[in-house]
Amino acid sequence: MGRLISAEFRKILTTKMWWALLIPTVAIAALWSIAGNYLIGALIDQIDNSVVASQLRLNFNNLPWSTLMFARTVNISAIFPIVFGALALSSEINRRTITTSYLTAPNRGSLLSAKLVTYAAWGMLFGVVITGVASIGMAIASRPEQLPDAVSWLEIAASGIVSCMLWTLLGMGVGALFGSPIASIISLLLYTLLVENLIGLALPDHWPGILINGSANGLTGSVASQLVVDKVPNIGALMTGEAQELFTNLIRTAAGAGGAFDWWISGLIFAAWTAVFAVAGWLMSKTRDIT
Amino acid sequence: MHDGSGRIVVQGLSKQFGPITAVNNLSFTVEPGSVTGFLGPNGAGKTTTLRMLLGLVRPTAGISTINGLPFEQLGNPGRVVGAVLEAQGFHPTRSARNHLRVYAAAMGVPDQRADQVLELVGLAEAGRRAAGGFSLGMKQRLALATALLGDPQVLVLDEPANGLDPEGIAWLRAFLQSFARTGRTVLISSHLLAEVEQTVDQVVIISRGQTVYYGSLDYLRQSQQSRVLVQAADPQALVAKLQEAGVNMVEQTPDGRLAITGVDRKTVADLAMAASIALYDIQQETVDLEQLFFRLTQGQYTGQQPGYGAPPPGYGPPPGGYGPGAPGYPPADPNQLYTGQQPSAGYAVPQGTPPQGYAPPQQGTPPQGYAPPPPGYDPNQPPSYAPPQQPGTPPQGYAPPAQQYPGFAPPPGTPPVDPQQQYQQPGQQYGGQPYAPPQDQQQPPAGGWGGNA
After folding, report:
1. B358 near B444, Cβ under 8 Å?
2. For position A239, what pLDDT does the model report?
3. Is B94–A287 a contact, with Cβ atoms under 8 angstroms apart?
């Protein structure tokens, strides 16, 4: 297994794909976190300076708003680890290198296991890069009083890294299932960016939270929104009861986790989705004829 | 663990792709220490068979083993069997050296091995170039380098000569022969017999997914009879004289000449001289191996009845496996052709038509180890492969049986003088061979095995 994992790492490092995908990943993460945090800062200023807020003595300024932007940044940047994972097996099939890969592995299962381990590691690496860039962008663009504390930051960063890892493995499963890079990438992007949002609109309440994208967003978004929601009573004396609930939902939606479950339930649902596609891709790869 | 024998066994292998039967109940054995050719026309199922052997395609039925085990149980298969299946399995932007280092890591051989095999196949200079920029011939060499990476005991090559220049082909030949000479196993597929004729000792010939011949190439070669065409002043007298001398394979051709099978030109001329019969014309005609191969595999596209492709009993594998050591098996010695070893039954040795194209196998000077192209090889010599004939055109010299010479019917017990049949049942002409077909097979199978009827 160790031999095959080291071979997988060599496969990745001897082509340009990994950094060709890391460049736009960094760019998107930086753009979203910097622009988004400036935008939130300006928006909160507007609200705080408004007549209503000052009359009601509400102060929105001291909430960790930047975490919402952090979750959003991770979710949008995750499309690159998805593509990276989708190419893991499908590009080998497409390039026909899969023949030699199978011929030099004890069996197909061991090659697929080695790929799973390798791409889990690479997914985490993408996660580290994305959360790192998002954190830097947050530190640059956000008001100091809107930053999370150290423990909260570790929580959202960890959820972001786990999310990227699972996305990579899910992409790999879909790639193995379809066996074609184009088909798997297009269907993955189309689904996560468009199709699921349309389905989500038609579903009531918590239902979007059990879908693939919904649960993935819930993993990062719920952690972030919870950090903000916990501080909602700090806004002012009036933030109680229905007003608090309404405001909480608003925050969750802003974090991209509208209708999602708690972060750990979302995480389990998303992990289950990943397992479904990984197993389906595995079974397909075990039986696929390499002609 | 595998038994380390280097033996490849294919048993009853079948593969169905949807409605298409690519391979149908194929069986053969490849022994170590020899180069075995796996021959058949395009689409005969060669690639599918090799891929089933290597665990890349799941057989519909049957099993195949290398060293006594199915591929996926070999443990670290790259160290046991190396395969050249296609010259396309490279990432276009990955350098040749990196490609090899990836798979060196996968099979656990040191990285220096990558440079060694690059050197071996003559790609040392190009090692740092991206494989996508390689010519087809260079890709074939890189594929061979990949196969050799694990220093395997068994080498499987699917049409490895595709894209190689004549120099590369000659190099490959010498390499494979020296590889086999070290007691290792080589299985090489081709759709051209002439392409591998100099390289292989054994052949497995398949057509439409079924085995039509499997055994030694020499044996197949011996079954290719030459015949002598003479124009005699007194044909009847000549036939009588020939019969007196024990030559019974005589027939008359439509243009009035005599076609005598089983003797050489000199014998006929001497006999005619002794009988004082004037000969106006005498010429020797040979069928080359390629024509025979074509004949064997011809059913593929001509829509013959089922059973056409089935091997006659004379060609079938003997029960209990087919090894070079089997009793009665002709020794795998190409020199046999030229040394005039007399087969039994009084027939003359088939004329040792020198193999077409390249120089005869260099028995005397085996290439040392992984030798460069043999020095005697002349790359400018054009390969003179006989083009396959159009289906329906009888191969030259094997027109439908000519009229029997009146009054000179062969004695009872002699096979009918039918050239087609002679080629189908070589065992009959060489009594004592273990391939003599049973008596009820005197007649060709329905549909005409020679295929031109």
Report:
1. no
2. 67
3. no
